[in-house]
Design brief:
CATH architecture of the largest domain: 3-Layer(aba) Sandwich
InterPro entries: HTH_LacI, LacI/GalR-like_sensor, Lambda_DNA-bd_dom_sf, Peripla_BP_I
Organism: Dictyobacter vulcani
Oligomer: single chain
Structural class: alpha/beta
Mean pLDDT: 85
CATH superfamily of the largest domain: Response regulator
Helix content: 25-40%
Order of helices and strands: HHHHEHEHEHEEHEHEHEHEEHHEE
Shape: elongated
Protein name: LacI family transcriptional regulator
Number of domains: 3
Pfam families: LacI, Peripla_BP_3
Low-confidence stretches: 54-61, 334-341
CATH class of the largest domain: Alpha Beta
GO molecular function, one term: DNA-binding transcription factor activity
Length: about 375
């Protein structure tokens, strides 16, 4: 059985003895087409069950109904939740999503150049673009609709959606202070991450306001990975028991998982001997042993709001009918219906208290 070749606009134009431009105008229902030519083209289209390539047609017209999402690998804990928010907004509009997953340890500027040169997307969401930030800035300056989500670098003039890492870390540390803890360690993320520096500053500010001097021995350098959390915990617990901190504020949940593993291996009671608090509220955090107290990052809301902002930049008239569960959330956020390229939206975080944290108990030395 020989498969029939799929017809193109060029084939339709040849059979109808008209130009390719005429076929395109007929398919796009332009009123300027002569009725006789329109009928001739449509007869052939219907006879051959021709289905136009919508993407190709849109590219020919200089526009598409596609938005690109530039994201880290999909096994990063936050990415599925962010993409959930993106899809929740997109599915009620005429637009579709094209996902580009990249390893952020490499420079993908050449790949990004090729993607945008194809003009397949009308705008771009960039999730944690890191080293690509300056490259993206060039495209934004050239007119590309672009929104960044929770970047590794300090936010610039490019529209941005994220959280206040300083205030969130301050709240987490202050919570431990209110529980009576005074020697609070901090395992921070990589220093080249803007969010890690902001969380460090929030931690330090809370201690200073409480009149507690900063102890260099209680500040450890992690890498936002469970293995680095293990390494830092082993350094802390290798010291004399009397020098242990009574609480640890860990810069993200992934590192906190490593800390909990070491505590379990060494039979260190959590929270009786040491309280542990993370940051992110990843899906696994509620199921750790013990369940992890953590700062909740609104990842789904970030994706939802960033998509709303991007589509309002691309097409302020786009049709969007939010589901009821999102209506209250949308009304509580800044208005992005105007084409405001200076938008910087911070979505509130909140503390989720679980059993990995508790009141300070003096140890028997």
């Amino acid at each position: 059985m020989i498969m029939q070749k799929k017809l193109t606009i060029n084939d339709i134009a040849r059979m109808a003895q008209v130009s390719k431009a005429t076929v395109s105008r007929v398919l796009n229902r332009h009123a300027s087409v002569d009725p006789v030519l329109r009928e001739r083209v449509m007869d052939i289209v219907q006879e051959h069950n021709f289905v136009p390539n919508v993407t190709a047609t849109e590219l020919a017209n200089g526009r598409t109904r596609l938005i690109g999402v530039l994201a880290p690998p999909l096994n990063w804990p936050a990415i599925p939740e962010i993409m959930h928010g993106v899809s929740e907004y997109i599915e009620t509009t005429p637009y579709e999503v094209v996902l580009y997953s990249m390893n952020l340890e490499r420079n993908h500027s050449d790949v990004l150049d090729r993607i945008l040169a194809m003009r397949m997307v009308s705008g771009l969401l960039a999730i944690l673009p890191g080293g690509l930030s300056s490259h993206l800035d060039t495209f934004f300056q050239q007119g590309l609709p672009l929104v960044m989500i929770d970047d590794q670098k300090e936010p610039t003039h490019i529209p941005w959606v994220g959280i206040d890492n300083f205030s969130s870390a301050y709240e987490a540390t202050n919570y431990l202070l209110q529980l009576g803890h005074r020697r609070i360690a901090h395992i921070m993320g990589p220093r080249h991450y803007y969010c890690a520096l902001q969380r460090l500053e929030g931690y330090q500010q809370a201690l200073l306001e409480a009149g507690i001097p900063l102890e260099p021995d209680l500040l450890l350098q992690g890498e936002f990975e469970p293995a680095s959390g293990r390494r830092c915990a082993e350094m802390l617990f290798a010291q004399d028991r009397g020098t242990w901190p009574s609480a640890i504020f860990v810069g993200n949940d992934q590192m906190a998982y490593g800390v909990l593993e070491v505590a379990e291996e060494r039979k260190i009671q959590v929270p009786e001997a040491v309280s542990i608090i993370g940051f992110d509220d990843n899906l696994l955090s509620a199921h750790m042993r013990p369940p992890l107290t953590t700062m909740h990052q609104p990842f789904m809301e970030m994706g939802y709001q960033a998509t709303k902002l991007l589509l309002n930049m691309i097409d302020p008239e786009h049709v969007h009918k939010p589901e009821q569960k999102w209506q209250a959330f949308s009304s509580s956020l800044p208005d992005t219906t105007k084409n405001d390229h200076s938008s910087r939206i911070q979505i509130p975080t909140h503390l989720v208290t679980r059993t990995s944290s508790g009141a300070f108990h003096p140890r028997l030395l």
